[in-house]
Amino acid sequence: MVNYQQRLGRTFAALVDPTRRAILARLEREDGASVTELAAPFAIKLPAVMKHLDVLDDAGLITRSKRGRTVTVRLSPEPMREAMNWLRRYERFWSGSLDRLAAYAESKEAEARKRR
Amino acid sequence: MVNYQQRLGRTFAALVDPTRRAILARLEREDGASVTELAAPFAIKLPAVMKHLDVLDDAGLITRSKRGRTVTVRLSPEPMREAMNWLRRYERFWSGSLDRLAAYAESKEAEARKRR
Question: What pLDDT digit, counting tens, does each position of B4-44 carry?
């Protein structure tokens, strides 16, 4: 059994590589692509692409299905939901930054008033 | 100059390790902590914690300031904003999943009606 922390680590590790992020971004736009189609935009060789797909598959971010000689790759975005929810707790730091700046300015003003 | 893709990769790489995630989570709750305080909950030795702090610092996720003999570590969450925005594009897959299920059911029904 892989626990929550292990899953998070595996998801983030899968997202470190720009080629893997590009593959996920493409699968976000297209509902399924063959391995050859996925490999086409990259300068790297097919076995290297296959290795990236293995990493994405191990992280549960894609599924692969074979029909005849064609392997179709599809997005399996659920692990990214968990990663996003982990990041979400920091959201208040940026979404509230203007509010906090205003509050800070006000407190400084109040301080200055007291000093007079 | 580090570009967008490099920054994303560095942020995700920093988030792979559970100790580093725990440090960030603690700094989210506390506004600044000393290195000794940060190291206390972990079974690993201080130099290992320092290495994790170096990774977080290189990724721009923390700042360190020294006063006398105490180094205070603070959260610098901005890089996580970029990471979250990258993940956000997949949000429709889960937030819209019920809508899409309904749409799918409807299209299947329409197909079945046509066939009759």
Answer: 999 999 999 999 999 999 999 999 999 999 999 999 999 99
Is residue B22 less than 8 Å (CB to CB) from chain A?
A: no
Total Cβ atoms within 10 A of residue A63: 13
Beta-carbon pairs below 8 A across chains A and B: 74
ipTM for the whole predicted complex goes beyond 0.90: no
Dist. CA B93–CA B72, nearest whole Å: 40
Residue from A4, A12, A63, A78 to probe the interface with B (highest B Cβ count within 10 Å): A12
Predicted confidence at residue B115, as pLDDT, reads 64
- Name the B residues in 30-69 with CB < 8 Å from any A CB: none
Instruction: Name the one residue in this structure whose structure tokens are 């598959």.
Output: A57
Hey, what are A63's tokens?
């599924």
If we measure between CA atoms, which residue out of B105, B6, A2, B18 comes closest to residue B26? B18
Q: What is the mean pLDDT of chain A?
A: 88
Assign 3-state DSSP to chain A and report helix, strand, coil percentages, each to 5: 65, 10, 20
b/e per residue, A26-40, with b = 16+ CB within 10 A? ebeeeeebebeebbe
Structure pTM?
A: 0.81
